[in-house]
Design goal:
Length: about 725
């Protein structure tokens, strides 16, 4: 068998040759047309868009940068982040739910499972490492990230990256300051230099350091520059400051506005179609808006990354039946159970409502419009076509075969049951990805007038030769236009009025009431939560979510989740948020640090979660070891059940509010105690020097606490006097 130039280069890289040099040599062999071909997706705009409009967004991968003459395979993109969006794949709980687990090992295992399924459907690049911090709970796509804190988000995103990249390439998104949905195509985010580097970029840096293959730019602008053509972000920060060696792709369709400036800025591939660059690059070259050398460099970065990942990508494809296999379903169930956050568990007749005793349950009322429907979350680009979905009603009926488990959308059955379980919250109609007239109408001029006939012919040949013909599931309702549900940013942070009324009616009828909140971020509960004896955040919990919820409610699994965000008592305690704004200002204050600075108590603090057992932290020490601080405590379980403690390290310098700097998830058997060590680098406390445009060294005493949550009244604060920096 003959060896292609790419394969020969890959073999040399495997033997120690420099990937960038080998890529440059391959690009030097390309024709001008071939280099241009690598600058955008391989598919024609109108032909594929038409197919997408037939419910086809998730039927196949999006290919780019393939050059057959040299054997360059290019890459084939599939979206995320709650699983592979092509074919009948495993639908894991949304990222925010997995953030509630605080379990980096679990997230790495999920990444590995996703990587296997990714390869099975023919994809090689996974666009599911979404790490934009949750600035405000109204953000429609909050469910796609892990939480409000950069350290927490960064560690989980790094874990997902590690897992995926054992089998494929991962792409982290959306770079940067992307946390508004309805106006994402238009909004210009003004952010000062210190807030940008201290709050909105560290988690991206963490994942770059993990070796992620690719970065996706954001739709929005930052400080007057579209992210898809911001040289400050894509070159000055990403490559020059952080040393990123992978490639940058645009967000979909409207991820850049200008061909030449995007190349000059450092964006390598326009996705997913031949669009702006294909039709406007030559005129921008002639105008001096970019150079041939910059084009060559962009292609070299793509090819070099493919060479580095060739040992992974050249492995045999897994069989298609790995999609939603029993092992991955079990993993989804484990994740959904670990994600459940127990917020309240008050006694009724002297005993906490949860866990429920199956032996004492003759009748169970499962109430609410969400209890018996497929509700996996966003219906846009992160949608997973799970072949089956276990609803809360399904899960409880399976777990309680001898009980009378009934369902109603109203409170009519509540009073006659031994326990009432109310499922309330949101669906993809309330929050999620948004494509509407306000977001895209002004961008239609960017669309090409017509497709190139030869590209359409190649596209049709590709479709005819596809190994799999994936079709949407029969129950994938609500799809319109491009196959998207129009969720968008939330209109309110509260439940629907009829849901709040339903809760009140059920509690009045049955004192043993459990409320399960389904949402992608915080829900304001003031006014009704104190009347509810048991309250859990159960999330968009994936295809096995109903089984997992039953596991936790019945005590067959412990509630080990901790909130990845703060739940305020008042929306005025949050940063400003206008879902129709085209200009927004981000400062460095949001979440638990904003509440602390302003003196507002949270209804439920960041990192909070109850247990079925008695957990505590005892004693604390902290000391500097080189360029990091090591903090220790003893985690105790004095109860009769196993449990999990999430030991959270918070630290501050000066009078700034303490911030999360590290965490450790610790499993404890009944009666067990363990010494827990949390290590964190000093640079997590560094402040950005706006005069030097660089990090200022950490000086003075560092105040460190190990806590059970951000507002833990029992946390002990220890001052660590830092050694003078080496000169």
């Amino acid at each position: 068998m003959s060896t292609t130039p790419f394969e020969a280069a890959a073999a040399r890289v495997a033997d120690g040759a420099d990937a960038s040099a080998e890529a440059a040599a391959l690009v030097a062999q390309m024709t001008e047309e071939e280099r241009r071909w690598c600058l955008d997706g391989d598919q024609p705009f109108w032909a594929d868009l038409s197919d997408m409009g037939q419910g086809g967004y998730h039927k196949r991968t999006f290919p780019a940068a393939r050059v057959d003459r040299l054997g360059i395979p290019g890459f084939a993109f599939s979206d995320g982040p709650r699983g592979v969006v092509i074919g009948p794949a495993t639908a894991f709980p949304v990222s925010m739910a997995r953030g509630a687990t605080w379990d980096v090992d679990l997230e790495e295992r999920i990444g590995e499972a996703i990587g296997v399924e990714l390869r099975a459907v023919g994809a090689t690049l996974y666009g599911g490492v979404c790490v934009n911090v949750l600035r405000h709970p109204a953000w429609g796509r909050a469910q796609e990230t892990y939480g409000e804190d950069p350290v927490h988000v960064g560690e989980l995103g790094a874990a997902l990256t590690r897992g995926v990249q054992r089998h494929a390439m991962a792409c982290v998104k959306h770079f940067a300051c992307n946390s508004m949905e309805n106006t994402r195509f238009a909004v210009d985010v003004t952010v000062d230099e210190a807030a940008l580097h201290e709050v909105y970029l560290p988690h991206f840096r963490r994942i770059i350091d993990e070796g992620v293959a690719s970065v996706m730019s954001a739709y929005n602008a930052v400080n007057g520059e579209w992210c898809g053509q911001s040289r400050m972000l894509l070159t000055d920060v990403l490559r020059d400051r952080w040393g990123f060696e992978g490639f940058v792709i645009s967000d979909w369709i409207f991820g850049l506005r200008d061909a030449g400036p995007s190349v000059h800025a450092g964006l390598d591939v326009e996705m997913p179609y031949r669009m702006i660059r294909a039709f406007h690059l030559d005129e921008d070259l002639a105008a001096g808006l970019c150079t041939e050398d910059e084009i060559a460099t962009a292609v070299e970065r793509v090819v070099a990354t493919l060479l580095r990942f060739h040992p992974v990508l050249s492995q045999p494809r897994p069989p298609i039946d790995v999609l939603a296999c029993d092992e991955h379903r079990a993993l989804a169930r484990e994740a959904a159970a670990k994600a459940v956050v127990l917020l309240r568990n008050e006694p009724v007749d002297g005993t906490p409502v949860l866990p429920l005793d199956a032996g004492l349950l003759g009748s169970v009322a499962v109430i609410g419009r969400l209890a018996a429907i497929r509700n996996l979350g966003d219906g846009g680009s992160s949608d997973v076509w799970a072949p089956t979905v276990v609803t809360p009603l399904d899960g409880l009926r399976a777990a309680l075969p001898d009980a009378d488990v009934r369902h109603a959308e109203d409170a009519s059955i509540a009073g006659d049951a031994d326990v009432a379980i109310v499922v309330v919250g949101y669906t993809k109609a309330d929050e999620g990805e948004f494509i509407g007239d306000s977001g895209t109408a002004h961008l239609t001029s960017l669309m090409p007038a017509a497709d190139e006939p030869e590209v359409v012919a190649a596209y049709e040949a590709m479709r005819a030769d596809e190994e799999h013909d994936f079709q949407p599931p029969a129950d994938a309702t609500g799809r319109s236009g491009f196959g998207f549900a129009k969720g968008g940013d939330r209109e309110s942070l509260r439940l629907r009025p009829d849901d709040e009324a339903l809760i009140a009616e059920v509690v009045a009828a049955n004192p043993r009431t459990v409320v399960c909140l389904v949402a992608g971020s915080a829900v304001l509960v003031e006014g009704w939560d104190q009347a509810v004896p048991a309250l859990v955040q159960s999330w968009y919990a994936g295809m096995e979510g109903g089984h997992a919820l039953a596991d936790v409610l019945l005590g067959r699994a412990e509630p080990t989740g901790r909130l990845p965000f703060s739940v305020p008592t008042d929306p005025d305690h949050l940063p400003p948020f206008d879902r129709d704004a085209i200009e927004a200002t981000y400062d460095g204050s949001h979440g638990y640090r904003r509440l602390a600075a302003d003196g507002h108590a949270a209804a439920y603090p960041f990192g909070f979660g109850l247990s079925y057992t008695e957990l505590s932290l005892q004693g604390m020490g902290a000391a500097q070891h080189g360029d990091e601080i090591v903090a220790t405590t003893t985690a105790r379980n004095t109860g009769a059940r196993p449990g999990v403690e999430v030991v959270q390290a918070y630290a501050s310098t000066g009078d700034a509010p303490a911030k999360l700097v590290g965490f450790a998830r610790v499993e404890l058997a009944a009666g067990e105690r363990k010494v827990v060590e949390v290590r964190f680098p000093l640079d997590r406390l560094a402040r950005w020097d706006v005069d030097r445009h660089d990090w200022a060294p950490v000086t003075g005493p560092v105040h460190v606490s190990l806590a059970r949550h951000a507002a833990d009244p029992d946390a002990t604060v220890v001052a660590v006097d830092l050694a003078p920096p080496l000169t």
